[in-house]
Design brief:
The protein is an alpha/beta fold and about 325 residues long. It has a domain of about 220 residues: Rossmann fold, CATH 3.40.50.150. About 40% of the residues lie in helices and about 20% in strands. The chain is built from 8 helices and 9 strands. The strands form 2 sheets. A 7-stranded mixed β-sheet has the order 3-2-1-4-5-9-8. It has a two-stranded antiparallel ribbon with strand order 6-7. Strand 4, helix 6 and strand 5 form a beta-alpha-beta unit. The longest helix is centred in the N-terminal third of the chain and has 37 residues.
């Protein structure tokens, strides 16, 4: 299906001045990032500081956009995850159980950090598992208030959410979680040449994961940091689009071992959206040292050096097959 641009029926439109500010910041960030490599070391320091400030301002505006449309966002996305999203969450939990069983910690609950929980739809789904202890974070005050309402209504556990920036999670000590889940959240932060932006969020995820813990990331397929063009154009949200190579490089350079990368296509209100989905882990030991470690990976269907080339989701609507991860940005995006 060919994607088309369309306005989504949000009852609270974004003020023109907010859109204009977002557009200007996206242009500034791209301009500074493009010029970064040719600058002197002194200028890089100055531009790096400016990049950080621009991203902070942009994320503040993105938060204000979600605050304005939070109720409509919930209405449009529904109270339950799609069958495809539910199946992927089931798979992640099954993988975490298998690892807990091998490590002898199956008696403990699986701690899952859901980054960007919004109004709590997926957090409520994860809370259904008796052996899972989910915790959600979001930076939108409106969404955090909706999470509080969900907790009062018994849909999510009390105390299972916090307001927090995914780039800075000081409330969590190192090695707190078995799973960190970035479901369409990491794409809100640009990849920057000075290691800020998306790298900061990935480094924090690595820090708070236990050794052997799992990372799940879903991002939109494409190229560049720009306003989204496939759907929800009325929001004017900036997205970092990814190729397979860009995503695997981001995770690898921040310490993760890629297990596999999938491609997926959704159709939302008649509009096609392409996704890249990555499963990765925080290694227990350096790769190639422990035969037992490599054997455990093979037990999960992950071949060392060729991380899990397989097809998933066949028979599910709006899904396409996965291909092996590649470190080349010349690869197709989906």
């Amino acid at each position: 299906m060919k994607a088309r641009t369309a306005e989504v029926p949000y009852n609270n439109p974004i003020p023109p001045e907010v859109r204009e500010a977002v557009w200007a910041l996206v242009a500034d960030i791209n301009r500074m990032a493009t010029s970064f490599e040719v600058l002197s070391p002194e200028r890089r320091v100055a531009i790096g500081t400016e990049l950080g400030k621009a991203v902070d301002r942009l994320l503040g505006l993105t938060t204000s956009i979600y605050d304005a449309v939070a109720t409509d966002y919930q209405r449009l996305r529904g109270e339950r995850p799609s069958s495809e999203d539910a199946a992927i969450m089931d798979e992640v939990i099954d993988m975490a159980r298998s690892r807990a069983e091998r490590s002898g910690s199956l008696h403990s609950k699986i701690r899952v950090l859901d980054v960007g929980s919004a109004y709590g739809r997926d957090l409520a789904y994860l809370a259904r598992f008796p052996d899972v202890e989910p915790l959600g974070i979001d930076n939108s005050p409106a969404f955090v208030q909706m999470l509080a309402t969900q907790a009062q209504e018994g849909k999510i556990p009390q105390g299972s959410f916090l307001r927090m920036d995914m780039r800075h999670m000081p409330d969590f000590t190192d090695g707190t979680f078995d799973v960190v889940r970035h479901n369409a959240t990491l794409l809100h932060i640009p990849i920057l040449p000075n290691g800020a932006g998306a790298d900061e969020a990935v480094r924090e995820s690595f820090r708070v994961l236990k050794p052997g813990g799992l990372l799940y990331v879903s991002v939109k397929a494409g190229r560049g940091f720009k306003l989204e063009t496939a759907h929800d154009t009325s929001l004017g949200r900036p997205h970092q689009y990814y190729t397979r190579g860009l995503l695997t490089d981001l995770l690898n350079r921040n310490g993760f071992r890629i297990l596999r990368v999938l491609t997926r296509r959704d159709v939302r209100r008649g509009l096609a959206v392409r996704w890249l989905i990555a499963f990765a882990e925080k290694p227990v030991v350096p790769l190639g040292i422990s035969g037992r470690y490599e054997g455990a990976l093979r037990a999960e269907g992950v071949a060392a050096g060729n991380e899990g080339c397989r097809q998933v989701g066949s028979g599910m609507p709006n899904r396409v097959t996965q291909s092996c991860p590649s470190r080349s940005d010349n690869d197709p995006v989906a």
